[in-house]
Structures are given as structure tokens and as C-alpha cells.
Amino acid sequence: MKIATAAYPLDVLTSWAQYEDKISHWVVEAAGQGADLLVFPEYAAMELATLAGPEVAGDLEASLFAVSDRLPEADALHVKLARAHGVHIVAASAPAATDTRPVNRARLITPTGQIGVQDKQIMTRFEGEVWDVIPGNKLQVFDTVLGKIGILICYDSEFPLLGRALTECDIICVPSVTETLAGYWRVRIGAMARALENQCITAMSSVVGEADWSEALGTSFGAGGIFAPPDTGFPPTGVMAEGALNAPGWTCAEVDLARVAHVRRDGVVLNRSHWQGQSGRDGAAIPVRLR
To answer: What's the gap between Cα 235 and its chain centre?
Structure first.
């Protein structure tokens, strides 16, 4: 199969039809390249707040709920496109209102119209301290015709125990938005580490460019990337494909899950099955004074 991961710029939208045209264009382009799984970035749905006007889009609190209100329509659009083109889509994550505070929610949409929901687990300082976005549902393993797919939203990819919870996944999608080059590399390093530990494929998407209408997003740095364990059957760098930094568009790679199964069974190293070797050795290190 082929995975396509987006470096996606945000727009000021003047109508719902403009959004429909934009998402349709992106999906048609990826499907035209033979993609089976499309991964959009974290918080890329925030552009929907501009439909409520610049004051709402620029207001941290109001923008959360303006986007949340549009999610049913956005999901219906993605379902329509997934069906029409026979693709699986990780829709751009968005704030979703709950009984308390909004969560950061991604959705995996299948060609049959099913929707799997994955919320972010660990908030960044901005999300938790300023925006008051909260953690959502537990991690999910989505069993699809493409294989077992998980989602670690941005910061979540930097935590190995969250990655380990997805050890049954063949593919882990990492939708991201990062405001600095350092942030991009933190998430990319996390995505590559999860591919190494789980001996699986990780697919990172990014928001790119300016969104000066939003206090939350501002300027974003990033690129699409598809990573694998640097082992038997995969590139020695672990990089299957990488986009140019801050260049909008799709980054694609052909993925053979038989290679994932093989490297897990008979790789040069067996990180995934050797994980338990840490038990009993993962407590606090013994201090040794050398002076």
C-alpha cells in the first residue's frame, strides 16, 4: 500500500464551499498518486474557525468551540471523500467539546464510512496551561483492511510508554503542528524512536506556514515524513520518505507490511520482543561516586 502524509498550510476561509474544495483537492491529489492512507496534521482543522469571522478565529476560547461546532460537517465531508476514492483518511485533529473542556481529537475514516476516534493523551504546556484543552479517550488500535493503525498526536509521540501501548500496530500516524524547528525535530525524533521500538511504520504530518489570524498557531514549521526501523528490509537511515521543510504537499511511500512482520520476527535486532528485558532493570539507577 501507499501512505501519503501532508505538509498542510492553513487558509482564511470565506465559505464552507471553499473548505470542501480545498479538502477535496488534497484527497484527489493523494488518491491520484495511488495513496491508500492519507494523514492530515494536528489542529489543521483550526482553519474552520475563520468561517466564524476574524474575531472568533483570533480568540483562543471562541475558536475552540467554533471548530468543534463544525466537526460533524467536516467528518461527513471526509466520509464522502473516503468512499468516493477508496481511501482511509486520518482527518486533521480538532478541538472537540465535551461535558467539561475540549479535547484534541483526530478521526480515522474508512472507505466504508466508519469513524475511529483518537484523542490526544498528554497536553503541551500551551494546550494545558493557556488553552485549557484536556486529555481525552484512551489509546485505540484500529483494525483495518490496511493493517492495524494507531494515532499518537504530536507530543504523544515523544513518550515511549504511549508508543508501547500501540505495540500491536503496524502503522502509527503522528499528526503534528510545531511552531519552531526544534519542535518539528522533537516530534520527528519521537516518531522515529517509536518506529524503532515497535519495529513498525510511523507517518508524521505537519502544518506549515503562516496563520497570523490565530493566537494558537501563528507560524508553523514542518514536513511530511514516513519512518521505519533501520533494519532488514528498510532503509539504513530509517527514513522511507521525507518532504522538504515548510513545502506544502504530500510526501508518499510504498509500505509492505510483510516487511514489518519479517523484521519483527527475524530482524538484526528485536526491539519489540526484547522490550520486557527492561523489567527489573528500569528502576532508579544506582548512584556510584567517582571522584
So the answer is: 22
Q: Please report, as a single letter, which amino acid is at residue 149.
A: I
Identity of the amino acid at 151: I
The predicted-structure confidence for 218-233, as pLDDT tens digits, reads as follows 899 999 999 999 999 9
Report if pTM > 0.90: yes
Q: How far is CA 28 from CA 20, 78, 115, 180, in A?
A: 12, 12, 20, 30
Contact assessment for residue 175 and residue 40, using Cβ atoms and an 8 Å cutoff: yes
User: H-type helices in the chain, by residue range?
Assistant: 16-32, 54-57, 60-85, 125, 160-165, 181-198, 257-266
Q: In whole angstroms, give the CA distance from residue 194 to residue 177.
A: 18
Helix 16-32 / helix 60-85 crossing angle, nearest 10 deg = 40
Contacts of 10 (CB under 8 A, 6+ apart): 44, 46, 47, 207, 209, 211, 214, 217, 220
Helix (H, G, I), strand (E, B) or coil at 97: coil
Cell digits of residue 178: 510545531
Please report which confidence band the pLDDT of residue 241 belongs to, taking 50, 70 and 90 as the band edges: very high
Question: Nearest CA to 147 among 182, 172, 181?
Answer: 172
pLDDT value of position 121:
98
